[in-house]
Amino acid sequence: NAVAEVMNRRVATVGLNEPASSIGAGFSRGEVALVVDGGKLVSIITKIDLVDYLTQQGRADSDSLRKLAPA
């Protein structure tokens, strides 16, 4: 399979200093977050990145994780 068949074309751009909570809605729409600072791409955050972060912070309860699932 070609990369084009596997990649996700649904992306949202977020600023480096925006609250992490701002990316949850995009994940529920199947998007990934491109993090930019000064117009430059500095990172890509996926849904699993956020789940890992919430788990490490002890905030990954079933209700918060359910909100990340596509509708």
Describe this structure in words.
The structure is a single chain. By secondary structure, the chain is α+β, with helices and mostly antiparallel strands. The chain contains four helices and three strands; from the N terminus they run H-E-H-E-E-H-H. A three-stranded mixed β-sheet has the order 1-2-3. A hairpin with a 2-residue loop joins strand 2 and strand 3. The protein is globular. The model has no long low-confidence stretch (mean pLDDT 82).
Give the N-terminus to C-terminus distance in angstroms: 27 Å
Strand order of the largest sheet: 1-2-3
Average pLDDT score: 82
Distinct helical segment count = 4
SSE-based structural type: alpha+beta
Helix content: 25-40%
Largest sheet: 3 strands, mixed
Encode the helix/strand succession as letters.
Answer: HEHEEHH
The proportion of strand residues reads 15-25%
Give the overall shape: globular
Unreliable stretches covering 5 or more consecutive residues = none
Q: Output the radius of gyration.
A: 13 Å
Tell me the number of strands. Answer: 3
Name the descriptors:
single chain, 71 residues, three-stranded mixed beta sheet, 34% helix, 24% strand
Quick structural gist:
This protein starts with a helix and ends in a 5-residue tail after the last helix. The protein is 34% helix and 24% strand. With 71 residues, the protein is of the alpha+beta class.
